[in-house]
Amino acid sequence: MSESKFDFNKFLADSKETLLNPKGFFESMSTTGGMVEPLVKALIYGGIAAVINLLWGLFFGNAITGGLFGGAIGIMAFIGTIFGALIGLFLGAVIILLLSAICSGNTDFEANLRVSASLMVLMPINAFLNVFGLIGGLLGTLISIALGAYGLYLLFVALTKSLGAKVETAKIILYVLLALLLITQIFGYLGKRAMRKSFRELSKYEEMYSEQESDYESYSDDEDYNNEDADDSDYYSNEKPAEFPSKALDLVKENLSDGENMITQEKIDNLIELTKKMNNAQSDSDKLMELLQEYNYSNIADYTNDFTVVMAGITAVSSLNAIEKMLINGSKEEKKAAELYTVDEMLKSAASQSIKAGKLTKADLMLVYDNWEKISNLEKEASVE
């Protein structure tokens, strides 16, 4: 059977119907006619989404990464979206075919491929709304949930109307996928929020500590105060602790992950080498992409995730060290002052939130301690504008 030429006007009409009248569209959608139409549809949707992602990357890339990567985010997003559309078309068809089979629906690959291509109408919309995710916050999460939920609804309609799947079975699948969507989005939002909160609390502590120095001096007139026990060093600093703060870790050990270690020696060394090289290639987006691939990172997001986890480790150990020096080994007056200004709670919260945000194990924290100077230098390297 010969394949007809692609009709762009029909494409526009079908896209509008898919979004505004999904029941009518999928009920009348042809499940045969060849591979040309679904392939071209996927490329058009992917191309539009790629242009939008490129623009968002160029507009917001510097703001998000502090100028470290520049427009490389947008360029990689463009290329990744094009390839993602092609891969997503066929991968989506396979997944839809499996769901259709579970629901006793049509298992012809072409029919499922055409459904997959039609559902990709959400690609440009998702790309456009990604700006809220780049900015961050609850609004971005709510938009992602709403768009994801509508996508699942379109999938349900396609399964039951185009592929003849059993309605009750398809409903069960819809509810399961919706629950997974909510769990993923909510936990992702809470994780980002916890990380931001931990850094805010650490900054708040540093400001508060400077205000407390005069109050500590007033305690020196008390009869029970021993000047020989006073420690003039900062409780929270970037210097390596004299020893690993294991006693302080016992106070927040319930926050430790019992899963796999998130930090390895190889990961630390790779981050250090890669970050240095990136600083020397800031204006060359092609070079940045080559560097990421050289160190087995598929995109900037993967690199940023590893970097954030390691930084969460050094933040956690710093907070634990401050807990040990002030709340465990500190004098009675220092402990009293910490409680008075709720510094004790802030330090425990900062350590706990950093550990949870990075999903860190005790082994992760000890490895951070052993590589303290390296990680401190890594932080400085990444701060270069």
UniProtKB/TrEMBL annotation:
The chain crosses the membrane at residues 42-61, 68-101, 113-132, 139-160, 172-190. It comes from the Bacteria. Residues 17-183 form the Yip1 domain. It is found in: Membrane. It is a multi-pass membrane protein. Pfam families: Yip1. Keywords: Membrane, Transmembrane, Transmembrane helix. Residues 213-234 have a biased composition (Acidic residues). GO terms for cellular component: membrane. Residues 213-238 are annotated as: Disordered. This is YIP1 family protein. It comes from Tenuifilum thalassicum. The lineage of its organism: Bacteria, Pseudomonadati, Bacteroidota, Bacteroidia, Bacteroidales.
